[in-house]
Amino acid sequence: MRLVVFGVLGLFSLAGCGMNVDSKQDLQGGDSALTSDTAVAESGAGDDAGSADGDDSEGSTPGTDPSDDGGSSTDEDPEDPSTGSDRLDTATPGDEPSAEDYITFTRSVISTKRGASWLTPIDVDADGYDEYLLTSMTEGLGASIPPIGPGGAYILGRTESASATGLGTWELTKQFDYWDGVIWPNKSKAFDINNDGIKDWVIGCGFLARPQGNILVMAGEMSGGVLSFGERQYIPIPDSGRWYHEVIPLDIDGDGDMDFVTTNHNMTVFEEGTGLVEWYENNGVPGEVSLTRHEIAEGGGALLTLFDVDSDGDQDIILPQFFEGESLVWMEQVNEDRWVRHTINDNTGRGFGAEMADMNGDGRLDLVYGNHNHQLSTIADEAVMGIYWWEIPPAGEVRSLADWDENMNVVFEGFEVGAPDVDAEGAPGVVHTGDINGDGRMDISASGDGDEGVYVFIQQEDGTFFENVIDVGLTMAGDHVMTDLDQDGDMDFLWAVFGTTGILGAESTVYAYLQD
């Protein structure tokens, strides 16, 4: 999803709708997070269960997710190519590759929780099947300009009655919702931040449309072998006008407790801002969240990843830059107090997301990256929307390179944004990696975001990729996890789709895409 103007104009248009909101039902349009409903296959789904090994390290190898809080759906529209029993045969094979190389999927509705956006796998009950930490960025209208209301956080998991195989049924357990007043909760991480040996739930919050930033923590609690989370507490930050999309745990100072790295921005709908990169030092107080903030540099502001780029034994920071500066940079960690910025790429426009994966099977991790542009941009670099990967340059050279362009590989260029406003939409969105067809080669999945599709780009023997369309006709598809949801031996997807924004808020869905 676009982190800058992700739905900002669509949500902002609510300010002129003239609605009077007098009740809880009005605000949430009947989608109450106080209830949880089970999922029913939308079309042709089996009765399998879920295993998940998602892109985040919190999860177990198997796992499944979603449950609905707005009710499940079995409605099918024969006019809509994205619904119905025949609607997901979206691939259109040409001469290369052959038709049998294409993969089709069957879609099932798992949840209709308003604002559903981010998914983090975690096995809370140690049964070998993942649950998911789901954040809902906004669940309805709010008394603000723009009129964007608070969001929520939930654990999505299979019901106790669900079988060990098949998609099963799912339920959603509330951690907090609209009525708790948390503004724009973003991506979740689970790690021990209070030094008691139990994973805690940490969420970066805020957004340019509601620039009330914070980082919240819910302490983990173990009972009967099941992990649950306590009440919200907030990490002190010096400027609540800065908003955060994620934190990444890392023991930077090597003292045995978990610090974290993050980046923030203070741009609003009305004015420009600047990004900051920070790390928060864990002070090591047993049972307490006690942290010391350290500023690394200006820049970043959205998503990030960590990797030892120069092979010197510590983790460096890789920063896509959407708001300002070069498209993609890395921050060399000289020591915990000194960091040096280096350019990776500056000709792909607005940087969005990055992660590490072994793309060429040589046993070394490579850098995968997606930008977030619009084909109608008058700036040439920002008119090409694509996904790319790089081999990490040799350690003896990487610090001195002007950029990594000689190592750049194009996975795909050619997304298309339907909305004409360059500042309102972009593509692609969230990008992840995994082996979708079990051939031992790494493939790449992507949300279209402003583009109305969801995709997996399948790597061929010669290292090229072909576009495999999973679904079409979607609005602002977001985070997703590749996993064997139905335990049939092949990989599926769990996908959060923010959806269109109506007068009562986002019409969101979490889908399961089961590989046929």
Polypeptide structure, described:
The chain has 516 residues and is mainly β. Helix content is 3%, strand content 38%. It has helices spanning 8-12, 24-28, 395-398, and strands spanning 105-111, 116-122, 131-136, 152-158, 170-176, 185-191, 200-207, 210-223, 226-235, 243-250, 259-265, 275-282, 291-298, 305-307, 316-320, 328-335, 338-345, 351-357, 366-371, 386-390, 408-413, 431-434, 443-447, 454-459, 465-471, 477-483, 492-497, 501-502, 505-506, 509-515. The protein has a four-stranded antiparallel beta sheet with strand order 1-30-27-26, with no helix packed on it. β28 (501-502) and β29 (505-506) form a beta hairpin. The chain is globular, with a radius of gyration of 21 Å. The two termini are 27 Å apart. Residues 1-57, 61-87 and 89-95 have low confidence and may be disordered.
Furnish the topology, listing elements before pairings.
Blueprint: H1 8-12, H2 24-28, E1 105-111, E2 116-122, E3 131-136, E4 152-158, E5 170-176, E6 185-191, E7 200-207, E8 210-223, E9 226-235, E10 243-250, E11 259-265, E12 275-282, E13 291-298, E14 305-307, E15 316-320, E16 328-335, E17 338-345, E18 351-357, E19 366-371, E20 386-390, H3 395-398, E21 408-413, E22 431-434, E23 443-447, E24 454-459, E25 465-471, E26 477-483, E27 492-497, E28 501-502, E29 505-506, E30 509-515
Antiparallel strand pairs: 1-30, 2-3, 3-4, 4-5, 6-7, 7-8, 8-9, 10-11, 11-12, 12-13, 14-15, 15-16, 16-17, 18-19, 19-20, 20-21, 22-23, 23-24, 24-25, 26-27, 27-30, 28-29
